[in-house]
């Protein structure tokens, strides 16, 4: 998590009496902590008991859209094809998964009053299209195109979009948290001068007055591949204040400061966040390599320990033909990949690229779902011939 942040009212000392304005009733302190009591945490002060549940529904299994006997090959999906739409919860369509990670896309076409909590995975949401605000007990995280929002595991939240003409996001769910890479920080935990972004680029939640009315509030809680409808007797966004290191935060891909080399630098120079099981990179417009004989397109590579997922946002992606905004490609580990025929030669002498893309490299093989089967270009694996 990025840095210490606090909003609203707090007692001077943790775990001590903190009275409401009536001078008699106590605010309820909730410690939200990771890795037991040893990881990043925040202390939240509620009007009501955060554990109050009025009704716990029977869980339902989510359709994980398993593609039986999927081939082991390259895939190129058009994620704008055959989308069902829905609200920010129901619109999610899974494309790729393994035991720790799930990658889904969602076209949000309608609103909902139901709140959402992912109790088993942290979430990384990339807003491709649309503007709005993420609301949680920590406050407001306004978002627009290119924003990347990290949501800690177990956070109850909602995404409120402005309008429903063109909203789309990609979401990565991870059993381990999204972290700023350790080598971006100095010994004090501050982002270094050579990190590709600074604290000023990271947007923590903004203050929002607590919602204190009682009344049923529905929360859909996801645990692995099961969802539970829960009813709380009050609104969970009832915090009068909080402080700590655990909260949703936003970083826009346009704020990423790219690194450029004399000869081609490998993808880790485009690193954004890591988890235990994957890395996320931001590819953004930049000058190309400046050696007089440099080949800007990447060399063929065989990353035997990772699957490569690319989601294309904007601009002409230098190494691949036929991809467009909304394309999703999978190049599994253990077999080589690289530029399409002609792309290496075409890149020589080019001064810069205008590409925007998101890369996800997982350290365990991903399984494609039936969404991949139904939206992928049939001849993509043969397109290097
Ligand atoms: Fe690659």
Overview of this protein structure:
This protein is mostly beta strands. The chain has a domain at 254-382: Sandwich (Jelly Rolls). The protein is 3% helix and 37% strand. The protein has helices spanning 343-347, 370-375; strands at 5-8, 28-33, 41-46, 55-56, 60-61, 75-78, 92-97, 101-107, 115-118, 122-129, 132-136, 139-143, 147-151, 156-161, 168-174, 214-223, 226-234, 239-244, 249-252, 271-274, 278-283, 286-287, 307-314, 327-331, 352-353, 356-362, 367-368. The strands form 5 sheets. Strands 4, 5, 9, 11, 12, 14, 16 and 17 form an 8-stranded mixed beta sheet that branches. Strand 7 (92-97) and strand 8 form a beta hairpin. The chain starts with a strand and ends in a 10-residue tail after the last helix. The mean pLDDT is 96. The structure holds fe (ii) ion. Fe (ii) ion binds next to loops.
Question: What characteristics describe this protein?
Answer:
385 residues; seven-stranded antiparallel sheet; 37% strand; binds fe (ii) ion; mainly beta
How does the SSE layout of this entry go?
Layout: E1 5-8, E2 28-33, E3 41-46, E4 55-56, E5 60-61, E6 75-78, E7 92-97, E8 101-107, E9 115-118, E10 122-129, E11 132-136, E12 139-143, E13 147-151, E14 156-161, E15 168-174, E16 214-223, E17 226-234, E18 239-244, E19 249-252, E20 271-274, E21 278-283, E22 286-287, E23 307-314, E24 327-331, H1 343-347, E25 352-353, E26 356-362, E27 367-368, H2 370-375
Parallel strand pairs: 9-16
Antiparallel strand pairs: 1-18, 2-3, 3-18, 4-17, 5-17, 6-24, 7-8, 7-27, 8-15, 9-14, 10-13, 10-15, 11-12, 11-14, 13-19, 16-17, 20-21, 21-26, 22-25, 23-24, 23-26
This protein binds fe (ii) ion.
């Amino acid at each position: 998590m990025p840095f210490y942040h606090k909003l609203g009212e707090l007692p001077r000392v943790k775990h001590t009496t903190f009275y409401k304005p009536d001078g008699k009733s106590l605010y309820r302190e909730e410690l939200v902590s990771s890795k037991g009591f040893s990881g990043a945490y925040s202390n939240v002060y509620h009007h009501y008991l955060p554990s109050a549940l009025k009704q716990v529904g029977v869980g339902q299994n989510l359709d994980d859209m398993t593609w039986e006997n999927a081939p082991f090959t390259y895939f190129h999906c058009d994620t704008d094809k055959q989308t069902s739409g829905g609200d920010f919860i129901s619109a999610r369509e899974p494309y790729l998964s393994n035991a720790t990670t799930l990658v889904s896309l969602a076209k949000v076409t309608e609103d909902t009053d139901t709140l959402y909590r992912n109790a088993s995975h942290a979430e990384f949401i990339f807003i491709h299209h649309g503007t709005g605000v993420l609301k949680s007990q920590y406050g407001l995280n306004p978002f627009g195109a290119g924003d990347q929002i990290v949501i800690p595991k177990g956070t109850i939240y909602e995404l409120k979009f402005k309008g429903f003409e063109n909203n789309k996001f990609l979401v990565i769910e991870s059993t381990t948290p999204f972290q700023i890479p350790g080598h971006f920080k100095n010994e004090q935990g501050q982002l270094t001068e050579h990190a590709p972004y600074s604290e000023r680029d990271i947007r923590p939640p903004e203050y929002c007055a607590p919602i204190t009315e009682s009344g049923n509030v529905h929360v859909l809680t996801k645990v692995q591949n099961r969802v539970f409808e829960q009813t709380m007797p009050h609104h969970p966004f009832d915090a009068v204040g909080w402080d700590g290191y655990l909260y949703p935060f936003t970083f826009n891909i346009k704020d990423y400061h790219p690194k450029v080399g004399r000869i081609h630098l490998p993808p880790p120079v485009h690193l954004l966040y890591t988890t235990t099981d994957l890395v996320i990179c931001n590819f953004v417009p930049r000058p190309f390599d400046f050696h007089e004989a440099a080949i800007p397109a990447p060399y063929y590579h065989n990353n035997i320990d990772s699957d490569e997922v690319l989601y294309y946002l904007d601009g002409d992606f230098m190494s691949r033909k036929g991809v467009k905004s909304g394309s999703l490609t999978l190049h599994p580990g253990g077999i080589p990949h690289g530029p399409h025929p002609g792309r290496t030669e075409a890149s020589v002498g080019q001064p810069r690229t205008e590409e925007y893309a998101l890369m996800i490299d997982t350290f365990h093989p991903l399984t494609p779902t039936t969404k991949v089967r139904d939206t992928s270009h049939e001849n993509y694996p043969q397109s290097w011939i």
